[in-house]
Structure formats: C-alpha cells, structure tokens
Amino acid sequence: MGIGRSRLETTGTAFHTEFVVAVGIAVLAAVLTVASPRAGAAEGALSQLDQQCLACHSAEGLEKKLDNGEKLSMHVDGAAFEKSVHNKIGCPVCHANTSFENHPPVKTKISSVREYSLSQNKVCESCHAPILKLYESSIHAALLRSGNAYAPICTDCHSPHAVMAKAAYDKASGTPCSKCHDPIFKAYASSVHGNAGLDCSNCHRAHEVTAATAGDQLKDACLACHQGALDSHKTWLPNAGRHFDAVSCPACHSPKAKRRVDLRLYDNAAQQRVAEKKGVPQFESRIRLVDSKGSGLDAMALHSLLTGFNRDGTDNRTTLRGRLEVSDGVDAHRLVRSKGAIQDCAKCHRQGADPFQSVTVSIVGPDGRPVRYGAKPEVLNSMISVDSVGGFYAIGGTRIKLLDWLLALAVLGGIGVPLGHLTINWLVKRYAKRIGGKEDS
Ligand code: HEC
Ligand code: HEC
Ligand code: HEC
Ligand code: HEC
Ligand code: HEC
Ligand code: HEC
Ligand code: HEC
Ligand code: HEC
Ligand code: HEC
Prior knowledge:
The chain is α+β, with helices and mostly antiparallel strands. The chain has helices spanning 2-9, 14-35, 48-57, 78-83, 91-94, 113-120, 122-125, 129-136, 139-145, 154-157, 182-189, 192-195, 200-204, 217-225, 229-234, 240-246, 249-253, 282-290, 299-311, 401-412, 417-434; strands at 63-65, 71-73, 259-267, 272-273, 318-326, 359-364, 370-375.
C-alpha cells in the first residue's frame, strides 16, 4: 500500500519510483528476516554460550535445596527467554558471578528464595536507572525499606527471563498487580474502566505507585483523562469544586459502597496533612493519652488530641479537614456508568445520612499510607468540635443546626455560595465563643 501511494505522488518519475520500490523490498526483506521461523526454534537467536547454559537449565524440575529447607527452581524457559526483550543480553551479563568454571555446584550461600530474589534484583538497576528512580519514590519501595520483604521488586512484576515489551502485556488478566491485589482486581475487572480495557497503572502508574489516599494524585489522574468533568458537574452540583475536594470520586461513582468521613489532621501553616515524624509515633501515643479505654474518640477527646498537637507547635496550626470517602479500598474500584452515580443531594444532605455515621481521624503514617483511628459520629455534631471540624459540614448531614439553617439560606437565597461559606465560618466562630465550649445537645 505504501509503495502504491508513493508511485501516485511521484507522478511517474522512473528513478524515484524505482528507488521507492527498492527501499520497499529492502524493508520487506528485513521484516522477513526478523519474522521468519528460525531454523530449529530455540537455537538461532541465542548465542552459543546461552544455549550451553540452557542445555542444563531448560530441564524442568532442576532445583536447588536451600539451607532453610526451601527449594529454588533452577528451571529457565528457553523458548520464553528467546522471545523476551532481553534475548540479546545473554545469561552471563546478568549472572556475572556464575560461569561454567565455577559451577555446578554453586558455592554461594542462599538463605531463602526471597533473599535470592532481593539480591539478584540489583542487576536490573544497572541498565534501567531512570525506572529505578521512579520506583524508589513508590509506596512499594517505602514498604521494602521499612522491612516488608514481600513488597514488590522488579522481578515480581517482570519475570526476569520472559520480559515482554509493554505492548504485549495482557491487561485482561490484571498482571502483574493482580498477583498481590486480587480482590481489587476482581472488583475492578467488571467496572466501567475494566470493561474499557484500562489497567491499574492507568490510574496508579506502574513504578511510582503512591499511597492511595495520601495526596491528590489519583484525583488528578481522573481529571487528566476526564478534562470536562468539573464543568459537567457544575451544571447540576453547586460548588462542584468544593465537592471534588471534600468528596472522593468513588464516594459518588461506586454507589453501593459503604462510606465514611475521614477527618485528616492538617497543618494550616504548612498547608499540608500532618505526617508522623520519623521514629516518633506521635499519633498513637497521643491517642492513647486521650482515649485510654480505646473506645473511639468522642468530641472531648478529639479536642484534647488537637490541643496536644498544638501544644508544642505554634498558634493552633493543626486542624482537621474532612473528606467523605468509601470505607473499603476494594469498593473504590467498583465504578459504574455515570447514570448509576449518586446524584440525590439527600443521600448526604439530610439528618442521619449514612456517610456521617462512620468517622475516622487520620495522620500520614511513616510509609506514606494514612494511619486511622475511629471516632464517634457525634464529633461531627458537637459544638465542641466546630472549631476542629470547622471546614467540614454538609447541610443536614451533621446536626449543627445553625449551620444547616444558614447554609440552606445561602443556597435558597441565591447568595453566592463562597460568600455564604465565609459568612458561616465567621458566624460559627462567634457562636462557638458565645456558648463557651458547651455541647449543643
Ligand atoms: C552442567 C549443567 C549446568 C550448566 C552448563 C550451567 N548450569 Fe547453572 N546450575 C546448574 C545446577 C545443577 C545448579 C544448581 C547448583 C546447586 O545446587 O548448587 C545451577 C545453578 C545456577 C544458578 C543459581 C545461582 C546460585 O548462586 O545458586 C544460576 C544463576 C546459574 N546456574 C546460571 C547459569 C549460567 C548463566 C550458565 C551458563 C554460563 C549455567 N548456569 C550453566 C547446572 C548448570
Ligand atoms: C536481564 C537479566 C537476566 C538475564 C539475561 C538472565 N537472567 Fe537469570 N536471573 C535474573 C534474575 C534477576 C534472577 C533472580 C530471579 C528472582 O527474582 O527470582 C535470575 C535467576 C536465575 C536462576 C535461578 C532460578 C530462578 O529462576 O530464580 C537461574 C538458574 C538463571 N537465572 C539462569 C539464567 C540463564 C540460564 C540465563 C540465560 C538463558 C539467564 N538466567 C538470563 C536475571 C537474568
Ligand atoms: C544489560 C542491560 C539490561 C539489564 C541488566 C536489564 N535490562 Fe531490561 N532492557 C534492556 C534493553 C536494552 C531493553 C530494550 C529492549 C528493546 O526494546 O528491544 C530492555 C527492556 C526492558 C523492558 C521492556 C521495555 C518495553 O519495551 O516495554 C522491561 C520491562 C525490562 N527491560 C525490565 C528489566 C528487568 C526487570 C531487569 C532485571 C531483571 C532488566 N530489565 C535488566 C537492557 C537491560
Ligand atoms: C508493581 C509492579 C512493577 C514493579 C515493582 C516494577 N515494574 Fe516495571 N512495569 C510495570 C508495568 C505494569 C509496566 C507496563 C508499562 C506501564 O503500564 O506503564 C512496566 C514497564 C516497565 C518498563 C518499560 C516501560 C517503561 O515505562 O519504560 C521497564 C524498562 C521496566 N518496567 C523496568 C522495571 C524495573 C527495572 C523495575 C525495578 C526497579 C521495575 N520495572 C519494577 C510494573 C512494575
Ligand atoms: C480508575 C482509576 C483506578 C484504577 C484503574 C485502579 N484504581 Fe486503585 N484506586 C483508585 C482510587 C480512586 C482509590 C481510592 C482512593 C480513595 O479512597 O480516595 C484506589 C485505591 C487503591 C488501593 C488502596 C486500597 C485500600 O485498601 O485503601 C490499592 C491497593 C489499589 N487501588 C490497587 C489497584 C489495583 C491493583 C488496580 C488494578 C486491578 C487498581 N487499583 C486500579 C483508582 C483506581
Ligand atoms: C508482590 C506483591 C505486590 C505486587 C505485584 C503489587 N503490589 Fe501493590 N502493594 C503490595 C503490598 C504488600 C502493599 C501494602 C499493603 C496493602 O496496602 O495492601 C501494597 C500497596 C499498594 C498500594 C497502596 C495502598 C494504600 O493503602 O494506599 C497501591 C496503590 C498499590 N499497592 C498498587 C499496586 C499496583 C498498581 C500494582 C501493579 C502495577 C501493584 N500494587 C503490585 C504488594 C504488591
Ligand atoms: C456528589 C457526587 C459526585 C462526585 C463527588 C463526583 N461525581 Fe462524577 N458524576 C456524578 C453524577 C450523578 C454524574 C452523572 C450526571 C448526569 O448524568 O448528568 C457524574 C458524571 C461523571 C462523568 C460523566 C460525565 C462527564 O463529565 O464526562 C464523569 C467522567 C465523572 N462524573 C467523573 C468524576 C470524577 C473524576 C470525580 C472526582 C474528581 C467525580 N466525578 C466526582 C456524581 C459525582
Ligand atoms: C487513562 C484515562 C482514564 C483515567 C485515568 C480515568 N478514566 Fe474514567 N474513563 C475512561 C474511559 C476510556 C472510559 C470509558 C468510556 C466509555 O466506555 O464510554 C471512562 C469512563 C468513566 C466513567 C463513566 C462515564 C459514563 O459516561 O458513563 C466515569 C464515571 C469515570 N470514568 C470516572 C473516572 C474516575 C472517578 C477516575 C479516577 C478515579 C477515572 N475515571 C480515571 C478513561 C479514564
Ligand atoms: C456524596 C455526598 C454528597 C452529595 C450526593 C451531595 N453533597 Fe453537597 N456536600 C457534601 C459534603 C461532604 C460537603 C461539605 C464540603 C465542605 O464544606 O467541606 C458538601 C457541601 C455542600 C455545599 C456547601 C458548599 C460550601 O461552600 O461549603 C452545598 C451548597 C451543597 N453541598 C449542595 C449540594 C447539592 C445541591 C447537592 C445535590 C445536587 C449535593 N450537595 C450533593 C456531600 C455531598
């Protein structure tokens, strides 16, 4: 086809046409050379040395008994290796310590199968430094550093002797993520994105996977593909931007999920969530101080927790920021077509609405994942917490009636909602001062 079109474009210049045909034949020849079945399958592409290694290692069932009793398979699938992107590299490049001269038997001590993987994995770094850099920033690498030997390393996601080009990954099987996150994969497979053929790394990335609820990365990923989403929500949802900040996308788009409110400790001065200081488990010890019975934080305890955080810091910089989200990470993957999403305001803006019956308080933990602690739903209703929970209320969803009333007025009366919000914050502060910290119910 390409040649035919060229001929038309070159309007019969004999030389040019011949040239194009010649190039075409050369390309065809090259393609045929690459694509033709090689004589004797596994031979051909691999070097003689590799074939010699495989003469022993392609034997199924070849294994090595380790000191701890485990068996390490010594089998390498030669045909898969030949098809892999690394087929030109050759065994000795990655196995520099192993040669015909020094084995078998091998004298190196291997204490466990996992320890072997961890040590061999270093070889990938020598050629893929940029990927390693991305990986180092991931939650998986953080887990590994914190001593979780089973957090994924390169060879958990890329079988070392059968690495395929990106295009060859089978998205339908969810590999490599499904190996360890199977319940999520199963839920995801029948979701709107699973059906559309997207995979985990479309949202989470492959190497720089971050903790799911730590920052805005996931929301940003959604909005990078759905660029018109904010505008389309604005057509029916007042203050859609505020909702996008305070309500996670799955909280509306996974309609059957159980929801909760997470009150995140927030540093107002630094404008970021409070994170555990290295080596000082401040959250847990402070929780133990204010809730010694472990029955969940009530309004008084929550207030004391904040006072504790602020005592050695400066002027009330630590506050709480509420976020309505799904309680179970698996449910976050059951996203449905948008006509099934929650649109009914009363699902949230009504007294006793479900999402407000389950409350947690959280801090960013040492590995980047949040550490959560249960609180009693009453903390959202109590005047004591108004200052702490200040930035978070939903009409009717919580029982701070004054707020409900003002908010309803702001919406119905057509006062600009941002203006309404500011006024409310100011009035609340005054009201809270006036009642002098007494509970309203
Ligand atoms: C004569 C058969 C034979 C040949 C040829 C051979 N191996 Fe092995 N290899 C073995 C056996 C058997 C073991 C298990 C040794 C043991 O149990 O201590 C082994 C172990 C290994 C291991 C595990 C390393 C370890 O520290 O235990 C690697 C890697 C390996 N071989 C790579 C190679 C490479 C690369 C080549 C080619 C340069 C090669 N082998 C050639 C038989 C062979
Ligand atoms: C791109 C680098 C690379 C190449 C090329 C490579 N290997 Fe490996 N090999 C590894 C890594 C990494 C491991 C550790 C695997 C793990 O994590 O379990 C390994 C493990 C092994 C093992 C131990 C058994 C196992 O699967 O864990 C044997 C035996 C082995 N390789 C032989 C070979 C032979 C033979 C060749 C050539 C046909 C070869 N390797 C080519 C990287 C490589
Ligand atoms: C000696 C250098 C070298 C080492 C060591 C090496 N690679 Fe590679 N790798 C390459 C090269 C070169 C390519 C590109 C091959 C191509 O595109 O034809 C590649 C390609 C890849 C790809 C596929 C890229 C694509 O096209 O989608 C993956 C995945 C990969 N390597 C993972 C690994 C892993 C995991 C290890 C460690 C077990 C490793 N590599 C070790 C050189 C290396
Ligand atoms: C948690 C699973 C996972 C881990 C761990 C992982 N990878 Fe990958 N990698 C993937 C997936 C999935 C892809 C497919 C590309 C994509 O979807 O972005 C990929 C793609 C690649 C590619 C080719 C595409 C690209 O982005 O350039 C290379 C090279 C690669 N990985 C190397 C590595 C190396 C080296 C390590 C270890 C430092 C590693 N990977 C660790 C899952 C992983
Ligand atoms: C359409 C985007 C998207 C895709 C695709 C996706 N996720 Fe998620 N993932 C999310 C969101 C959003 C959350 C929850 C964030 C929240 O609660 O705010 C999440 C949370 C998670 C969590 C944390 C769960 C917990 O218990 O808190 C894991 C683990 C995870 N995803 C793994 C995966 C795996 C594995 C796949 C592929 C099978 C996948 N994700 C596909 C968006 C996605
Ligand atoms: C070898 C096992 C393994 C593989 C493979 C793996 N993970 Fe993980 N992953 C873990 C473990 C262990 C954790 C920490 C415990 C947890 O949250 O489930 C984790 C945590 C996560 C988290 C953070 C969860 C949170 O609470 O915020 C996300 C997101 C995630 N993985 C996504 C992925 C994606 C996407 C892939 C594929 C590209 C993948 N994982 C592949 C083992 C794995
Ligand atoms: C308060 C509940 C709610 C929240 C929060 C929410 N959505 Fe929606 N979304 C809906 C409803 C309801 C529809 C269907 C509206 C309709 O049919 O007119 C919808 C429609 C959509 C659509 C299809 C229409 C379009 O814009 O292409 C996309 C995509 C979407 N939402 C993405 C998101 C993303 C991304 C987030 C998080 C940043 C999010 N939504 C947060 C309720 C919500
Ligand atoms: C890599 C791009 C990509 C990312 C990232 C992504 N989506 Fe999608 N989304 C799609 C595609 C493609 C479809 C399927 C469109 C179709 O089948 O009509 C879709 C469909 C949807 C729909 C259904 C729309 C409808 O018309 O019914 C919703 C809702 C949605 N996505 C929300 C989200 C949310 C929430 C996130 C983040 C957690 C997200 N998407 C992340 C590409 C993406
Ligand atoms: C999934 C739960 C949910 C749904 C559905 C929902 N909202 Fe909200 N809404 C919230 C939460 C939570 C807040 C609190 C945001 C904050 O102040 O942090 C909020 C805040 C508001 C605000 C105040 C904005 C501000 O500036 O503080 C208005 C007005 C509002 N919602 C109106 C609506 C209307 C009208 C609908 C239906 C079309 C609706 N909401 C649907 C959860 C929801």
